[in-house]
Recover the amino acids of this structure.
């Protein structure tokens, strides 16, 4: 569970997210065409982020463009 006010850097420092996966997150395309294995690797990271607006600098896209997708992803992974 994320702590209110936690920074993106704090999250990256406290998770074992690989450089390859981090690169994938930063360069994710708007169609979200990536394999299930990537989704499963992302799950521990995603569940630590309480406010998806904080992911804006990571995804490089407006929050509204992936908000619904993220909600579906969380439901799918739970």
């Amino acid at each position: 569970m994320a702590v209110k006010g936690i920074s993106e850097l704090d999250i990256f420092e406290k998770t074992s997210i690989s450089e390859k996966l981090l690169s994938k997150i930063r360069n994710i395309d708007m169609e979200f065409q990536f394999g299930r294995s990537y989704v499963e690797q992302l799950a521990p990271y995603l569940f630590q982020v309480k406010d998806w607006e904080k992911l804006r600098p990571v995804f490089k896209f407006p929050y509204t463009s992936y908000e619904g997708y993220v909600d579906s992803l969380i439901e799918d992974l739970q």
Summary: Residues 6 and 20 are 23 Å apart (CA to CA).
